[in-house]
Amino acid sequence: MKVLIACEASGTVRRAFEARGHDAWSCDIRPAEDKSNRHIRDDVRNHLEGWDCIIVAHPPCTRLCNSGVRWLHKPPPGRSLDEMWAELEEGAALFSDLWNAKCPRVAVENPVMHKHAKKRIRNYQPFAQSFHPWHFGTDPAGPDNEKKRTCLWLRGLPPLRATGTLDGFSARARVHKMGPGADRGLERSRFFPGIADAMADQWGPLGPPPEFEPEEQFVLPLAA
Q1: Inter-residue contact 197 to 163 (CB < 8 Å)
Q2: How many domains does one find in the chain?
Q3: How would you label 164-182 residue by residue, b for 16+ Cβ within 10 Å and e otherwise?
Q4: Which residues in 85-157 belong to E strands, given as ranges?
Q5: What pLDDT, on the 0 to 100 scale, is given for residue 175?
Q6: pLDDT at 173
Q7: Strand pairing report for 54-57 and 2-6
Q8: Is pLDDT of 79 > 50?
């Protein structure tokens, strides 16, 4: 399959799909950390068409996530309320463009979202599932043994099945306890290899999708 990994510079998800034989590309405004030539450095919204079936997207969540909603009422030092709300509009617009991309299989990853973000996202639907990285880890000392609630908004894709053997009791809270610094936002948003492997293993075998009608992609079944 031809797979786009949106808003990723680390290459974590791209490499997982590549390792399984897929034509995988990442796209971000930052350069690829692994210097890969399978990385597009640009606004991903310029590259949302022509992919076989999957867009695994990690749009910035700073102004969308529930944990940061307080800044919309009282901004941090040196910032204004107008700036906070402008960044919310920008973040919601990017999420909307990824979620509504003309692709039959889309996955968008973000934390739990507050009500102001939900109202601004076109065709918003509740997330399909949530989990922690440790659900996909097998090594207590490995990078996946972390507590960080992660949500997936899915269209045309099944929820991921947990593949880990950890019980969560030894999971670290590194992300939540991370101190201030120039790279804090980047490090807090870094994706986990166990989840990336599960995406490639479970979604990759689905293969290229059948033809679909874009106008029907958001039609939900009637409640019983």
Answers
A1: yes
A2: 1
A3: bebeeeebbeeeeeeeeee
A4: 105-110, 129-131, 150-155
A5: 60
A6: 86
A7: parallel
A8: yes
Q: Is residue 52 part of a domain?
A: yes
Residue 206, pLDDT > 50, answer: yes
Confidence of residue 189 (pLDDT cuts 50, 70, 90): low
- Cα–chain center distance at 103: 16
In a domain, 210, yes or no: no
146 HSE (CA, 13 A, CB side): 20
Range of the domain at 175: 2-205
Could you tell me which residues come within 8 angstroms of residue 159 by beta carbon, excluding any fewer than 6 positions away? 128, 129, 152
Note whether residue 140 is domain-resident: yes
Pick the closest to residue 3 from 53, 58, 59, 57 (CA basis): 53
In-domain check, residue 119:
yes
Neighbours of 138 (CB within 10 A): 13
The domain that holds 80 is classified in CATH as: 3.40.50
